[in-house]
Amino acid sequence: MPALWAQDVLSAIIALIPAPEIYRASPFFPLRLTPQLNAALADDGLHLVVGDRTGSIRLWVADDADDADKRAAVVIPLDEACWVRFHHLRRLLERLYGRVVGPLPNTFRPTRYRITRLAYALQALTARRAGATVRDIAALTDAGVRTLGGSIWKDAHQRARVERLLTLAEHLAGGEYLALLRYGRRPLPQSAALIPY
Fold it and tell me: pTM for the full model?
């Protein structure tokens, strides 16, 4: 079962609520999105993860939203994550209509280079906390650093790279990893742009 998440942190969550009476909303039964479904009941409501080969679809039904399945509506706050939420809602709709759900656009996910760098940083931190030296870690990618003299090693680019990775990993471990869940957010403009007709 995937870990539960915080709706205010992860923009990929689709929040279901009862639609206002003025709308003729259709019934929606998220528990029928099987077979690739994980569900967990928490203090704040029902959390669902629908498996998909291009990425999970996450739903949240608030505990006070008893009629959300009878008259379903979705909440998309007008905040810096509204475009991300809108994209994930579109993925859910494509899935409901039986269409292939495409992958996340590049603007909503880190690049391959960024993902690889984050992985290297966390591996370096793991090795450091297990007792490895900076030189030991650098030698994993360049065995030649073991033969460098003290003065040359002090200014070696391999050492600087490992130290940068360790700094990045320490920031991530200290809580900045949450920023990865906010990837793709854009601040709302201060005022609407005037488009001439």
Answer: 0.62
